Amino acid sequence: MTTLLLQLAGPLQSWGTGSRFAYRSTGPAPSKSAVIGLLAAALGKRRSEPIEDLLELRFGVRCDQPGRVVRDFQTARALDESYSLPLTYRFYLSDAVFVVGVEGRRELIEALAEALRRPAFPLFLGRRSCPPARPLVLGTTDQQLVPALESLPWQAAAWYRRTKPAQMELDLIVDAGPEHLANDTMQDEPLSFDPHHRRYALRGVHHGTCGVGNPDARDRHDGSESSVGGVRTASTRRPRQQTSHDPMAWWETR
Fold first, then answer.
1. In this structure, is the dihedral angle defined by the CA atoms of residues 141, 143, 148 and 150, taken in order, positive or negative?
2. Where is this region: Disordered (predicted)?
3. Between the chain's N and C termini, which has fewer beta carbons within 10 Å?
4. Mind listing the domains of the chain with CATH numbers?
């Protein structure tokens, strides 16, 4: 088996799995159905075409930079301006970075990597208004899915890494397998993207974590150097001397 590693980064992403009507939500991480759809688009498959060859892929996500949820409030009127359409709310992840791994046969993985470099259809991160900001393909490896995700260096933006400690625990969400039993289920296994009868099945997933090092860590509270606006400064904060009845002791520990 071979694993293809992708990075999904952009100003906006949206990964809804249960959106209906006026509220179009986003999940906290890319869904398997959305990534399979992205791979199908890269291969040039239309929505009505079968995707059985992609369903054999094992899927996993590492959350390198979770981002934050933002809301887009939209109004619209009918084409003839005779009435207003329902108000809609769309939710996105802003400034998020994810690493996605798909494991499968070598021939299929190499074909997917080549297709992502020269996609047949435009690719986007969950919605058409969310183009990727970096090249999608990180590379392929002969490692299995979970070791490949665990061994890749941290892909978060430099400004984000500088705000975090030297060791980080990143959320890991992978298809359940022999080494990781399911501790959750999601209706996120795509069976057909045909607009006339879209179908999704349940898939078992395992939620875990993996550790990564942060070479850009800055400890801003121990008197070491820090960077503010590109200028290196030294912290001047001194710890307060506490007494047995110090009313501010609770604050010092925060």
1. negative
2. 211-254
3. C
4. 2-18+26-66+95-213 (3.30.70.2660)
